[in-house]
Amino acid sequence: MTYKSRAQHLSIFGLVVLWGLQSASARVPAEQAAQLGKSLTPYGAQQAGEIVKSGLDIPAWENGLLKKDWPADFRKPGQHHPDPFKDDTPLFIVTAKNMGQYEEFLTEGHKALLKAYPDTFTVPVYKSRRSHSAPQWVYDNIKTNAVQAELTADYNGVDNAYGGVAFPIINRDSPQAGVEALWNHITRFRGTYVLRDASEVAVQQNGDYQLVTSVQEVNFNYYKIDGNADSLNNILFYYLSSTHSPARLAGSANLIYEPLNHTQEARQAWTYNTGQRRVRRAPSLAFDAPIAASDGLRTADDTDMFNGSPERYDWSLIGVKNKIIPYNNYKLDDPKIKYKTILQKNHINTALSRHELHRVWIIEGQLKDGARHIYSKRRFYIDEDSWSIAVADQYDVRGNLWRVSVSYLKNYYDVPTTWSALDVFYDLQANRYHALFLDNEAPTTLIFANEAPDADKFTPQYLRRTGRR
Known about the structure:
Layout: H1 3-22, E1 24-25, H2 30-33, E2 50-53, E3 56-58, E4 92-94, H3 108-116, E5 123-125, H4 136-148, E6 150-151, E7 158-159, H5 177-187, E8 193-203, E9 212-219, E10 237-245, E11 253-258, E12 268-273, E13 278-281, E14 313-326, H6 339-342, E15 355-367, E16 377-383, E17 389-395, E18 401-412, E19 417-427, E20 432-438, E21 447-449, H7 460-468
Antiparallel strand pairs: 1-6, 2-3, 4-5, 6-7, 8-9, 8-20, 8-21, 9-10, 10-11, 11-12, 12-13, 14-15, 15-16, 16-17, 17-18, 18-19, 19-20
């Protein structure tokens, strides 16, 4: 090889390396993307149903929960949602005594909870109803994402995606399959702007608890109807919260700017503390930072089952399997049911919960060498229809299952979107749990809007006023 040809070769090689450092392609051919809305749902799930076991099947997806199927007594946004499946009764109830019959369909977390509380914890299983749905414009964006979206080379960000899950069609044999599935959870549709007035509790071993009430607002910049990838400015969403009670926490407030590409820019966060009466940067409000209102039972990245940068773990796909997961949990959000009925010793009142058999993507994150986190391993069970993490298993540094997080999903059919009616974080070692997003006794549930408030509201300058209200 001549010097010139060798130099040319190195130059070409250098360009290839540079390109590789910039992105890790996950795009699919146009003919494959064309299956979205046909053999695949618009979100990329298998459209067809299957008979899994006698009396236990997964139906075909038929556009989710349509308006004609809404309960007649639902009248306005923000109203607690009447149960569209109120006449359903359990097919069976999994208990510690009969769990062996259903072991292949149970998550490791649910097995552990059944064993930990054998006399009281149950898993009521109902007919599977593939209720997930989203607006047509979200489906259209997902088709575009399928052929354009890319992971950054370090898997710590997404480029060229907007307004829909980033990777609806995943090559299961790809080494990046697990992290792509995780990014789908992070980028899934949850409305354009949402306001929530809700409570959370850390339940003690004896069953006692104190409500912590707050207001949260999320401006999903990634889902502005008239936006696009070029106008995103690397902001996935803006998050603003203020605590109203109890007195020891009242007046505190937090603001977060969440990036889509953490390689380009890290999360920005600010906090207002009433004692100091100052707004301060909060760079530690991420990863395993403890959340004050949870009494140490939830980390910052436990919220929403997982949020933020995936950089501290190596992610892999364990498989796509049929599992019993929480779904269509309207009863847990029923305004006629009081918090004291839901919140019991050791765990929530599981008789009020609903579980169904669904296809899930099981992914696992192993803590990287040299990385710091209280969890050495995390396993997520992601609903294929909505890309929502339904159950999360967290392991301690000795490799023992330590915490189990459960997202009791339902379809907010007036939006429509699938999100949690209640999130519960169980600590198997402390025999305690934390329940998040209680709003049964609040006047409204989540209030969604297509337009967010003025952008000035989501600024550090506004944060102090928010906390003092």
